[in-house]
Amino acid sequence: MSAKLNLDKLDLDIIHHMMENAEISYADLGKKLFVSGGTIHVRIKKLQEAKVVKGTKLSADLKLLGYDVIAFIGIYLKESSLYDAVAKELQKIPEIVRLNYTTGNYSMFAEIVCKDISQLRYVLHDQLQKIKGIERTETFISLEESFNRNVKVAS
Prior knowledge:
Layout: H1 2-5, H2 9-20, H3 26-33, H4 37-49, E1 69-77, H5 83-90, E2 96-101, E3 108-114, H6 117-127, E4 134-141
Antiparallel strand pairs: 1-3, 1-4, 2-3
Helix pairs in contact: 3-4
Organism: Terrimonas ginsenosidimutans
Keywords: DNA-binding, Transcription, Transcription regulation
InterPro entries: AsnC-type_HTH_dom, Dimeric_a/b-barrel, Tscrpt_reg_AsnC-like, Tscrpt_reg_AsnC/Lrp_C, WH-like_DNA-bd_sf, WH_DNA-bd_sf
């Protein structure tokens, strides 16, 4: 992919550092990488236009915000051809924060974040099960997240 986009070592170093700390100023990042802040700005703009960089996100502690339940849902589809239609419906459920089309036992695998078990029950029973194309689901409740990290981008 990097050859196709023609990314060089500086691009990859910028991505790596920004994934570690998106709050770093372009000037400070430029100092670390021995280039000007303007160069960093131009490179970030190029990476955004190429859709390699998709904005920045604030990482919040969900537990401190009252979201005590994280669960993963394996979704069996009646037919794999229904994936796009089901994915479109699942996207309407705000508690689902990630959805993947998978191989293996499940057609889809979703991550869901809820304030409590009652909200999880509501999402599973009243929202998810009513989506046409879903045959059945299997839910896994996370007891603890040991770590969460970005992939290390090699330069």
